[in-house]
Amino acid sequence: MEADLASLPLFFAKSTDRLIVPQLPSKQYLSSLQETGIHLPEFITPQMLVSSPPKAINELRPWGWSPAIHKRLAALKNNCSPDFKTSPVFNWKPEAQNLYSKKFAQEILYKLTQKFPSQHFIDNSMLTQVCKTQHEIETLLEKWGKLMIKAPWSSSGRGLQTIRKTPVHPKIWDKVLGIIKNQHSAIVEPYLNKVIDLAFQFELRKGKIQFLGFSNFSTDHKGQYIGNSLNGLSENLPNEVKNFVHFVPSIILSPLIEILEASELATNYEGFFGVDTLIYSTKDGELKINPCLEINIRYNMGLLSLYLEKLISDNKKGIFRTWYQPGSSFFSFKNEMENKHPLVLIDGKVESGFFALTEARKDTLFGAYFLV
User: Fold this and answer.
1) What pTM value is reported for the model?
2) pLDDT per residue as tens digits for the range 95-137
3) Distance between CA 371 and CA 351 in Å, rounded?
């Protein structure tokens, strides 16, 4: 997956940037991108970097920071700009580990709901809990009825386990207790009647946060990421939900930015991040929101969807999807979709049709695309 989707950061890049990929893309793929007016970066492989290292680098921008990424990029750091060398992400700090845990999102949620209470926020009795024993989880199960359990360090819908009926199957307890054994705790939330998932996108520079926009994303029944809506919400949503979604930023953004700028995130990170929020329906049919479900401290698919919207005609809606089908290839899928939905460009923007965002070779297993 990492190799097949490695070219996706090109949509964030400028023509003066260099994008490290495991394999150079084909001329045919690059031509298809240029047709939509995309200014391509220079593509380079790790082998090319070793044989001909750049003499001057402004800054390094991986999809996300981790000890492994710091190690992979270590040889390039000496050539970076003085400004980047003073950035909090220039070297890995042990204290940064907490930022990437779902416990950090839970801490921000508590501060947000206590300092800026709202009748539209999730009730205090339903706030996320950190559990270290089976007994603690069973207590919440009795209280909430259904649970969503998450590994503190996990992403993209991995490390999730729902409990929606009792008695709980022993295999489920094995998985949950395995999370606690490996990561010393589990993040436990009430399993809510989800109406829509939103992600608010931000950029953090020198301790100050700028709001970039919000996106509507989709997950499967296991909670794993599927894709995003482009150019606004789906037309299929009830007006009540649409109106609530457009109201939500007014009660979330300023409080969220204030809390985050006062947190350890502002001193230990620099770059893009997204905050996932959940709009749900109560038993009485009232719409409410969990304003800080997760914090994704990295480039993310929601941020990518904001960039992709620039490629589409303003009055058109689309969907962005990642693709994987066991036993099939992205190459076959791409050919089928291009026949069914030929690409139509007007004034350099996509008016309708299928557009492959990643290259489709015959052996490509994973892909990304949008359909307008």
Assistant:
1) 0.94
2) 899 999 999 999 999 999 999 999 999 999 999 999 999 999 9
3) 10
